[in-house]
Amino acid sequence: MTLRPPKTSDASSIAAILIEVWIGTYLKRGVNAFFADYALQEFTPAKIEALMSDPAHFILVSENEEGIDGFVRVSSGCKAPVEGWSDMEISTLYVQPRHHGKGIGKRLLNAAFQYCRDKGMTSVWLATNAENAPAIAFYLAQGFEQVGETHFRIDDKGYLNNVYAFRLSDRD
């Protein structure tokens, strides 16, 4: 497994992972047009390329001998929905489900922590769906603490998310 910055040619692979993980995680009982349209409009190679070229976003991919199996995106300038935390958000940490348990998520997360430290941050935050028990267990095991709640919005619908934060001084 290699961690590296993405290349423009990785945009379609990252978009495919976004669709795979997002649909597999959040649409447990079937896919309807509302969610399918959202995923297909949001998770496009063009949008990924735009994120890769935006200096407010730091992205690393995990690559195995066959291709990309996960990635992390850290976004700066993101006001935490809970007071007292930095404006540095781990906006996406996705690993293909068949690669869970191999340490990929932990390595990507540690690289994200190091990036935040290098930028002088003392904390980082993220939000995850309140029903995403595997992700919640992972983040708590890595030392995050739940600090509040927010809602992920698609159009006029809101979905409860827990907000987790990590004090970067907690790890060396």
From TrEMBL:
Pfam families named among the record's database cross-references: Acetyltransf_1
InterPro entries in the cross-refs: AcTrfase_GNAT_prd, Acyl_CoA_acyltransferase, GNAT_dom
Domain N-acetyltransferase residue range list: 1-172
A GO term for molecular function: acyltransferase activity, transferring groups other than amino-acyl groups
Keywords: Acyltransferase, Transferase
Annotated protein name in UniProt: GNAT family N-acetyltransferase
